[in-house]
Amino acid sequence: MLARLTGPLLADADAESHRAALQALAALAGEHPEQRQPIADAVCRYLREPAEQAPAGEQAVALLAALARQHPDADGAAADAPCAAGCEQCLDLVLDGAILPDVDFGECRLGAVSLTDTHFHGDSVFAGARFADQALFQRSVFEGDASFAGARFNRAADFGRARFRADADFSRARFHSIAWFGRGEESLDEEDEAWEEIETRRTVAWDELNEDDPNWPIAELTDEYQMWEEGGDGTRFNHGVSFADAAFAREAWFWKARFGSAVSFQRCVFGGRVHLIQPAVDLTGARLTAAAQEKGQEWPEGQDWPLGWTTAAGLEDDGAALVVLDTSLTPYHLHLADPDPEVRLAGLRILGDLGDAEPDLRERIADTVCAYLRTPLSFAVATDLFDLAPAQFTELRARRAAQRLLTERTRPRPGRPLWEDIDLQLSGATLIDFDASDCRLARADFSGAQFYGTTSFAGATFGGKQSVAGTEVSFALNSGGQQGRATFHGTADFTGVALRSSGLMRCRFHADSSVRASGTDQDLIRVLLGARLAGDVAEVTADFREALRSFSENAPYKLSREACDELVQNVEYGTVPGPPDAPWEGRTGLKITGTDMLLTDLARPPAGADCLPLVGPGQREAAKSVIRVLLEALEAD
């Protein structure tokens, strides 16, 4: 019966046939409640398969919600609590990669829910829903308002790298297990068959304002990341969000989450480790349970609160600690959380003075300023100066001031305290005319960052005396390929910087000819040769060949037109397979014609490479000549 009814639903039929099939399935579920889960599986498959919204998507989603609401309340279970994991009456939903219209699962009882890479085109209502098993929303995108108000999560709630483009409401939610709003990668073993599915996974396009796609990964090898703090971007909230009166029984993890405006955590109860440093957070009335304080001894890092907040024990009868304003930071008073950019500007000046006077505060201040710079901008950076609204103009002033606070105090200057051993956590940040020239930094993470205007790292140093030069700065993730790559939208100067293993060669440069560096820096050669460019490969190849001819006619290293023609016949732009440990990844850049070898492989051959002998002498000489030309370009003023 079920197979007969689902046939028209999954067949290439018109929308009316799909609606009729859905009505028949609803009737079957009413007559045979034991068929609810198989029917739901068929409807989920119907919603997952098309590359665009299913013709009868609204009816299909409504049917899933109706099936979930047929759940008979568990005997003796509190109306406010989710069922136990494994409840046979709770509906499991697998809608990975689906494109959904408005959805309303309010007050539904659900089992294991997997909505990774799901695109919610309308409003999404999960208010009062009860999730008996894990709820996975990794990398999903919510275009309309999303409400999880009063929802109950019995097991892990994973919103890693989800994007909320309208308002989000998690007020009164109860997280009985870990609440994850950090990075969005799945952890898989090397032999996991899921890698094959990852290759064909349909993800939501990264069309965020001011940002090229950083190519954040979908998955990573188990144990590749040693700490929770590693990895790509966290959950993004572009507009208002509330967690007011929510309760977190275990970890509340918001590392690398980005809040586009003020966010309320008022009156929240935290029962585990907290990582929440974003300056826009309001923790008025929040509490840390006594149990969490006791377990805190297991976490050497302690709780991570936004600068300006701290805990005060002994004020509550149950032993809980209140989260209160930190008066020791006066005159700073949550200035960076203020909606007025003029107030934020004043706050930055105060923070700079505090750090100058109190060395122990410097890293916390740097972390806070970095979190502020990672806040998504609500307007285009490239907007003409005279077209900016007054508040937008002041916001850009505040961001430039935040950048200067970080760079001017880590750059040695007579008469000013030097902030030493500072880490900059600027992954995903939008930076404008960022000048880190001559700065001394312990470590810096620029993975996924967007650099606009003029960028300079000339003369900068990273790491301590024991560090290998260039290993303490990252412009992409260590997993390889273009994963987590930064993008440079304007000129960039890396003269005199050691950038070995920084991932810079895998970044995207919108204007390769505007990159300057020391000609002896092999890593920068690889940057130019491996930069991924937009557009048609043939057009990019033609543009490169013309640029090569033009340069050779005017540079000290000269090539005749005949010599250039011979060179360019052996070099083109293209994509070659990725390394063996990540076979789904391709590498794009200058390659030797007719081979799967980038010029980067000649500049620094991979260990144990057996493919080099396959390159003919003429091709090898052509590649070397192109590299010499690029060296001249790097040294040219």
Shape: globular
The helicity comes to 25-40%
How confident is the prediction overall: mean pLDDT? Answer: 84
Beginning-to-end CA distance, first to last residue: 76 Å
β-strand percent reads: 15-25%
Structural class based on helices, strands and sheet pairing: alpha/beta
Radius of gyration: 27 Å
Work out the helix count. 14
Give a count of the beta strands, DSSP E runs of length 2 or more: 44
Biggest β-sheet description: 15 strands, mixed
Helix and strand topology:
Elements lengths: L1 H9 L4 H17 L4 H13 L8 H12 L22 E4 L4 E2 L2 E2 L4 E6 L4 E2 L3 E2 L4 E2 L3 E2 L4 E2 L3 E2 L4 E2 L3 E2 L4 E2 L3 E2 L4 E2 L3 E2 L5 E3 L5 H6 L19 E3 L14 E2 L3 E2 L4 E2 L3 E2 L4 E2 L3 E2 L4 E2 L3 E2 L5 E2 L4 E2 L1 H6 L13 E4 L8 E5 L15 H17 L4 H12 L16 H19 L14 E3 L4 E3 L7 E2 L1 E3 L4 E3 L2 E2 L4 E2 L10 E2 L12 E2 L3 E2 L14 E2 L5 E2 L5 H9 L6 H18 L6 H8 L2 E7 L8 E7 L6 H5 L13 H19 L2
Parallel strand pairs: 1-4, 2-5, 3-6, 4-7, 4-8, 5-9, 6-10, 7-11, 8-12, 9-13, 10-14, 11-15, 12-16, 13-19, 14-20, 15-21, 16-22, 17-18, 19-23, 20-24, 21-25, 22-26, 24-27, 25-28, 31-34, 32-35, 33-37, 34-38, 35-39, 36-40, 39-41, 40-42
Antiparallel strand pairs: 28-30, 29-30, 43-44
